[in-house]
């Protein structure tokens, strides 16, 4: 089938590098004489038939920009038959042959559901700071997000060091610890608390009480012997009430002063680092080439520095875990070293 017109959209949490991917798709499409429609604000643009034609001129000078020129959104309507039918009717009306979605697993689930109502080709490009998509070594935006967080925590370390102060820094990642583990290791955090090293089974209150007790012991030891900065990185959505509650609990239980700092959306913004620009460009070009090669229902991935294709349904089956070697290095060597320094 000859591909003449494709749609693209960015969906879910925006990620630095999404613009680089949009640009690469448009440049590759131009090369193959394919027309590109950019739908606005994720799947909402499809439901509302709201798009802009994307030409080489529209993607000029965007490779370095954070956010997404197409805007992004989460779209609960895509979980309803009516929303899916409206989205499908826009694709049919505009005679689109294919749709490329840049986003995370929720966006890919929506894309597959849409494909049941519309017979065109569908391709996913993994774009999320969380790096939690199975089948690709990295997602677009992750590298920039961790660099941003590292830069922020290095600054926090300066003031923590000057005041001999304890900080609890809460990091994004939804329900995965890629950001927390990588940033924790890169900032030599004294504590990394994430889903991967915290019990998921049993009673959450008991698990937290147990961890709190251990933390008190280790922090007291650090205070007694070292009198320096102490940084705890913690994954969002892990501790009930988050970093602020943990700080209050340490104060109440053991009179330990901690400052909670929620890095939040700063991690999603900013100019993409080289790694994200290059990954996004490779994936954008590969998505268009995959369409030319008559592929559909796949996610463009990169494994061991090689672009590959993963069936979309496989990519959304499991969350990609943090590598065991990273967790083990933290748990068995780095965390213990931090304690021994005390
Ligand atoms: O998926 C990206 C992400 O930034 C997660 O890390 C975070 O949990 C979530 O989005 C925040 O979403 P929102 O911006 O809708 O609050």
Characterization of the model:
The protein is an alpha/beta fold and 342 residues long. It has two domains: 5-141 and 272-315, Rossmann fold (3-Layer(aba) Sandwich); 143-268, Rossmann fold. It has helices at 18-31, 43-47, 81-93, 105-115, 142-163, 178-186, 204-225, 242-254, 274-292, 312-315, 324-340, and strands at 5-10, 35-39, 51-54, 98-103, 121-126, 166-171, 191-193, 230-235, 258-262, 298-303, 306-311. The chain has a seven-stranded mixed sheet with strand order 3-2-1-4-5-10-11, sandwiched between helices. Strands 7-8-6-9 form a four-stranded parallel sheet, with helices on both faces. The longest helix is centred in the middle third of the chain and has 22 residues, at 142-163. It is elongated. The chain starts with a strand and ends with a helix. The protein binds 6-O-phosphono-beta-D-fructofuranose. 6-O-phosphono-beta-D-fructofuranose binds at residues 13, 104, 128-130, 172-174, 236, 268.
């Amino acid at each position: 089938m000859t591909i003449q017109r494709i749609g693209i959209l960015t969906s879910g949490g925006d990620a630095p590098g999404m613009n680089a991917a949009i640009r690469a798709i448009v440049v590759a499409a131009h090369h193959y004489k394919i027309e590109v429609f950019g739908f606005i604000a994720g799947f909402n643009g499809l439901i509302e038939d709201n798009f802009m034609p994307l030409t080489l001129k529209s993607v000029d000078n965007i490779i370095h920009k954070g956010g997404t020129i197409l805007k992004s959104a989460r779209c609960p309507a895509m979980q309803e038959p009516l929303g899916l039918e409206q989205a499908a009717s826009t694709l049919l009306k505009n005679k689109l042959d294919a749709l490329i979605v840049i986003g995370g697993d929720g966006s890919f689930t929506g894309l597959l559901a849409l494909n049941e109502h519309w017979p065109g080709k569908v391709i996913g490009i993994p774009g999320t700071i969380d790096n939690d998509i199975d089948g690709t070594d990295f997602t677009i935006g992750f590298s920039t997000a961790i660099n941003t967080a590292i830069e922020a925590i290095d600054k926090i370390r300066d003031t923590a060091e000057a005041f001999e102060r304890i900080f609890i820094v809460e990091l994004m990642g939804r329900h995965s610890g890629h950001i927390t583990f990588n940033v924790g290791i890169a900032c030599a955090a004294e504590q990394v608390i994430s889903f991967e090293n915290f019990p998921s089974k049993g009673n959450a209150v008991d698990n937290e009480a147990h961890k709190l007790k251990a933390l008190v012991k280790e922090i007291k030891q650090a205070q007694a012997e070292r009198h320096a900065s102490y940084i705890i990185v913690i994954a969002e959505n892990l501790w009930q009430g988050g970093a602020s509650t943990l700080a209050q609990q340490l104060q109440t239980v053991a009179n330990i002063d901690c400052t909670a700092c929620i890095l939040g959306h700063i991690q999603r913004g900013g100019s993409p680092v080289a790694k994200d620009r290059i990954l996004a460009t490779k994936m954008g070009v590969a998505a268009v080439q995959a369409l030319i090669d008559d592929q559909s229902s796949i996610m463009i991935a990169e494994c061991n520095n090689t672009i590959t294709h993963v069936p979309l349904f496989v990519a959304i089956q499991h969350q990609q875990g943090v590598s065991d070697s990273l967790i083990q290095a933290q748990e068995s060597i780095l965390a213990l070293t931090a304690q021994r320094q005390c």
